[in-house]
Amino acid sequence: MSVSALSPSRALGGVSGLLQVVSLLGLVLLLLKVAQLYLRRQWLLKALHHFPSPPSHWFYGQKREFQEEGELPHLMKRVEKYPRACVRWMWGTRAFVWLYDPDYMKMVLGRSDPKAQVSYTNLKPWIGKGLLLLEGQTWFQHRRMLTPAFHYDILKPYVGLMADSVRVMLDEWEKLVSQDSHLEIFGHVSSMTLDTIMKCAFSHQGRVQMDRHSDQGEEGSPAEGGRA
């Protein structure tokens, strides 16, 4: 083996050539990714052009507006300005469609499109993997078994009872919101659900929600300490 083959200049030349190849490949991959994101954004713009939306930045969407004003105030403004639906751009290539019109919701919920895992991930620890989170053939089988029990003619007599339970919960929320700007709704929704089930399934015309609020107000009482 000759000495020239092991010379530092030849070794540096090989490393330099390798770096050039790696840089070229990196540049090509970057250009492909940019083209992919561009095509993705164009597809979203075309797919969502029927839904109204305020102007959004091509890169960070509308995140700055929500950070400046807060989530709930900005959402309320959107609902007032766009009474049926609107688009919220999270990033340049990611958007959510907010639907709050009953007719729009009926059309969307009547479809059998795959469910977005991002939207349902937070619900799984709360409600478990039931009918709402299932997909495919398993969802179809469970839905077919439950549909007769939830027919409109069967549920119609219970609508008034459900509305009464919800009204009690909303009245309590109005009292609590006037005292504090923050409200934890998990316990209230659970009590409202229990109240509805007791009325509809067992014909128990009790005061589940009001009794819960009374128990919370009696801190340290013997009745509260004796509960399981």
UniProtKB/TrEMBL annotation:
Transmembrane ranges? 12-32
Residues of the region (Disordered) are: 208-228
* Entry keywords, A to Z: Endoplasmic reticulum, Heme, Iron, Membrane, Metal-binding, Monooxygenase, Oxidoreductase, Transmembrane, Transmembrane helix
Q: Where in the cell is it found?
A: Endoplasmic reticulum membrane
Pfam families referenced in this protein's UniProt entry, alphabetically: p450
Single GO biological process annotation from the record? lipid metabolic process
Which family is this sequence assigned to?
A: Belongs to the cytochrome P450 family.
Q: What's this protein's name? A: Cytochrome P450 family 4 subfamily A member 11
> Per the UniProt entry, what species is this protein from, by scientific name?
Muntiacus reevesi
